[in-house]
């Protein structure tokens, strides 16, 4: 499917590719992030990487015929990890079976004759929020996904930091407690306590214990409904005043505050921009998180660091790969 948002054509343009396990998107914009056209299609991973890359090529070629190939500056790619951004390789992401050491950068560079850059999706989102979102104008920024999982994109001294082999920012693996919900394969991890999947596991544990002790849980009155618990249902109930749901949120917020304190004390950022769950529930989470931060973080470091909800919202996917192209 194609969406056209501008009738005029830019004098120069960038193309961003978002490779997802369910959907793929191609976005064309100018240097000011004005989007001129967006194309998206179902990934259909069973086709394998060759067929999917060929579909990308086909759509890109049509855009180049329309907008003049010589005006294309660069292509940026956002994709889930693991990957090697320096070598331009996609290295078997869980949501893209069969994509083993795919040299996506070399393939597209040879096909279209322009520079191509690759970043994981957390880094790509960090670039977008830094260039035109909540972190605009900063030199040192941390972006936290806080969605299905917990990952970070790090902007340090005005540049994306991905580490020696693209594992910089894997904050979800940090252990915050000896035991707790499993996230990133580790019990008691940052992702275990602070992600959609982790909060659902935490909720099941807390609610099950209450049922076993014959304590009524209004927002989940039966053990049969435990598997239906989600982060969304927990926050909805907490906002409505459910005491058990609020207890679960407070546990997550406590560990979220501790993790933020570690990041603030270690990296001394100007701001931490947080997406998804935090952005949607800032009014509930912010005071709980700051209560912990004021106890845990170095006061001088906390004083210069703003905790902000992501600004781009659902549009961040459109801008993330473009940010990679423009970095």
Q: What do these coordinates show?
A:
There is one protein chain. The protein has two domains: 130 residues, ATPase, nucleotide binding domain (Nucleotidyltransferase, domain 5, 2-Layer Sandwich); 176 residues, ATPase, nucleotide binding domain (Nucleotidyltransferase, domain 5). Helix 3 crosses helix 11 and helix 7 crosses helix 9. The protein has a six-stranded mixed sheet with strand order 1-4-3-2-5-8, with helices on both faces. The protein has a five-stranded mixed sheet with strand order 11-10-9-14-15. Strands 6-7 form a two-stranded antiparallel sheet. The longest helix is centred in the last third of the chain and has 25 residues. It contains eleven helices and 15 strands. It is of the alpha/beta class. Strand 3 and strand 4 form a beta hairpin. Belongs to the ROK (NagC/XylR) family. It comes from Zobellia amurskyensis. It holds the Pfam family ROK.
What is the strand and helix layout of this fold?
Layout: E1 2-4, E2 13-19, E3 23-29, E4 35-42, H1 49-67, E5 72-79, E6 83-84, E7 89-90, H2 104-112, E8 115-120, H3 121-132, E9 141-144, E10 152-156, E11 159-161, E12 182-183, E13 186-187, H4 190-193, H5 196-212, H6 231-239, H7 243-267, E14 271-274, H8 276-280, H9 282-296, H10 299-303, E15 306-309, H11 316-326
Parallel strand pairs: 2-5, 5-8, 9-14, 14-15
Antiparallel strand pairs: 1-4, 2-3, 3-4, 6-7, 9-10, 10-11, 12-13
Helix pairs in contact: 3-11, 5-7, 6-7, 7-9
Family: Belongs to the ROK (NagC/XylR) family.
Organism: Zobellia amurskyensis
InterPro entries: ATPase_NBD, ROK
């Amino acid at each position: 499917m194609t969406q056209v948002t501008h009738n005029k054509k830019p004098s120069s343009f960038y193309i961003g590719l978002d490779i997802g396990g369910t959907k793929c998107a191609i976005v064309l914009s100018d240097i000011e992030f004005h989007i001129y056209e967006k194309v998206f299609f179902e990934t259909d991973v069973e086709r394998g990487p060759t067929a999917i890359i060929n579909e990308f090529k086909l759509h890109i070629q049509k855009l180049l015929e329309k907008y003049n190939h010589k005006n294309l500056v660069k292509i940026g790619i956002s994709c889930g990890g693991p990957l090697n951004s320096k070598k331009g390789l996609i290295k078997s992401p869980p949501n893209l079976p069969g994509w083993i050491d795919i040299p996506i950068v070399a393939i597209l560079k040879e096909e279209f004759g322009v520079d191509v850059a690759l970043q994981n999706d957390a880094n790509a989102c960090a670039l977008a929020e830094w260039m035109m979102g909540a972190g605009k104008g900063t030199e040192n920024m941390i972006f936290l996904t806080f969605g299905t999982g917990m990952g970070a994109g790090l902007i340090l001294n005005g540049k994306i930091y991905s580490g020696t082999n693209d594992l910089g920012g894997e904050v979800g693996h940090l252990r915050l407690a000896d035991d707790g919900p499993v996230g990133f394969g580790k019990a008691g991890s940052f992702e275990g306590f602070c992600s959609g999947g982790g909060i659902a596991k935490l909720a099941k544990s807390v609610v099950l214990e209450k049922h076993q002790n014959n304590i009524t849980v209004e927002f989940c009155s039966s053990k049969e409904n435990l598997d239906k618990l989600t982060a969304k249902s927990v926050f909805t109930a907490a906002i409505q005043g459910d005491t058990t749901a609020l207890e679960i949120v407070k546990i997550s917020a406590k560990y979220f505050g501790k993790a933020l304190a570690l990041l603030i004390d270690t990296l001394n950022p100007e701001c931490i921009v947080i997406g998804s769950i935090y952005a949607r529930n800032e009014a509930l989470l912010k005071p709980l998180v700051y209560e912990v931060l004021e106890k845990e973080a170095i006061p001088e470091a906390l004083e210069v660091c703003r905790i902000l909800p992501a600004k781009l919202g659902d549009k961040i996917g459109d801008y993330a790969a473009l940010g990679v192209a423009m970095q």
